[in-house]
Amino acid sequence: MKICFNSLMEKAKVMLFTSPTCPHCPSAKKFIYSFKNERSDFELIEYSTLSRDGQKKAEKYNVMSVPTFIIKGPGFPDPIGLIGIQNNETMNKYLDIALGIKNLEDFRKPTFKEKLSKGIKLGPIKIRF
In what order do the strands lie in the sheet containing 76-83? Predict the structure, then answer.
C-alpha cells in the first residue's frame, strides 16, 4: 500500500538512533529504508550514537539503547519513542498519530472494567456486571 501525501502538508520526522556495534541495528535500518518506500510523508534522519551529533540528539531525546526510533510530527505535541526493531503496523500507527491522521484514542484498548460492563457470554447465557 503506497500512501500519497499532499506536499503542502508538513511531514513527520523519523530519527533512527544506531550504533555500529549493535547486532540489531542493521535489521532496524533495513526495515525503515524498506518502509520509506511505502510512505512518503516522513523524513528519515539516521544518527550514530558514536558521533558527536548523534550523542547530543540521543541525550536530548533520552535515548538509552539502540536501535531507537523517535517520531515527531505536526499532529502530536510530544516525540514518540519506539525501542527495537519495528514492523509496518506499529510504524504506520505512530506515524499516523504524529501526523494527526489518527488520534491516540483510536488505538486505546478497552479496560477490564469496560469489557465486564459489556457482559460475559457463557453458552446461551449472558452475564452483565
Answer: 42-48, 12-18, 68-73, 76-83
**What is the CB neighbour count within 10 angstroms for residue 85?**
17
Q: For residue 43, which phi and psi values (nearest 5 degrees)? A: -100, 135
Architecture of domain 12-127: 3-Layer(aba) Sandwich (3.40)
Neighbouring residues of 60: CB distance < 8 A, sequence distance ≥ 6: none
Contact (Cβ atoms closer than 8 angstroms) between residue 40 and residue 5: yes
- pLDDT tens sequence for the chain (129 residues): 444 444 457 899 999 999 999 999 999 999 999 999 999 999 999 999 999 999 999 999 999 999 999 999 999 999 999 999 999 999 999 999 999 999 877 777 777 777 777 777 767 776 666
Burial of 29 (0-12, 13-18, 19+ CB in 10 A): middle
Q: Where exactly are the structural domains of the chain?
A: 12-127
d(C-alpha 49, C-alpha 47), whole Å:
6
